[in-house]
Amino acid sequence: MSKAPGPFTLLDGERTLSLPAVYEGERVLLDADAVRDQLGWELKPEGLCRGDVCIPVRDRGALVADGRIDLAALAGLLDRPLALDADCRCAALGTGHAARAAALATLEAPDFELPDLDGRMHTLSAHRGKKVLLIAYASW
Length: 140
Hints:
Blueprint (H helix, E strand, L loop, with lengths): L5 E7 L2 E10 L2 E5 H8 L2 E3 L2 E4 L2 E3 L4 H4 E2 L2 E3 H7 L4 E4 L4 E4 L3 H10 L6 E3 L5 E3 L17
Parallel strand pairs: 1-10
Antiparallel strand pairs: 1-2, 2-3, 3-8, 4-5, 5-6, 7-8, 9-10, 11-12
């Protein structure tokens, strides 16, 4: 099923971006200028480039359609996991393999802040060097 062109919400780390997109079934095609302006990646003859760094593109047909960039193909080239919901017109780009590997090598969890049962806020960093038991629950 094809959807009318419209805005698409992309979560990229701490940033929430709104990009113009065209939909072809489950395929999301982003405006190439918006990808360049908001994500910093531009398609050039030598590949997909950001500054002096270029990633070779072996199959341009899988990445580009009608001058637009396929979001799933872009995520694959960047070696970043993608959680995509075309029906909701939104997606989240995960952290790339190299950054995940570097974070895992330190064995240090990212900091976060949560309230306790009395509403007092606590950060994980306040407990560095101590043993901490975290219990997570999700209703789904």
